Amino acid sequence: MGPFSIEVVLGMLALGAEGKTSEQLLEFIGHKSMEELRSMSLVSRLLEQILLDRGKGGPDVRIANGVWVDEEVKPFQSACFQEVLKTVNKTKAGYIDIQNKKPTELAEIINSWVKEKTNGLIPTFVDEFSLDEVIVFANAVYFKGTWSKSFDANKSKNKDFHLISGEKVQSPS
Description:
This is Serpin-ZX. This protein is of the alpha+beta class. Helix content is 38%, strand content 21%. The chain is globular, with a radius of gyration of 19 Å.
């Protein structure tokens, strides 16, 4: 998970938090106020629109945010919070009876969303969740572009690349 994704997820959490928790989250991600956080979210959306230049041969960049909350968690059910997530962060928000789902069922929901948002490049994001989970935040960034100067294939060599699973695969470098 990159710094951009971490800031987005913590920003979504800050939007739903109140009081000292909200202040601490804002300070941690380097924002002075909720208004500043909302403006940065709008800047991210504007950047995404600028980069969506697919029709002209430009890169294909998509940013997606998701939050799934257990039905029992009341603070995140406010209409204001849901509206901010939807309009400012362009976030898919859903309420799920997490406590009565199998650990793999929630994973299937999240994996399906991630797979869709990454054009199938990340088919499995998580294997299962603990039944203690009450909220799940996710951020996916999809980028497909071409290099302005291509690599010379003759100068590339296959080397080990370590996957998160621990498996090694060969990848050109």
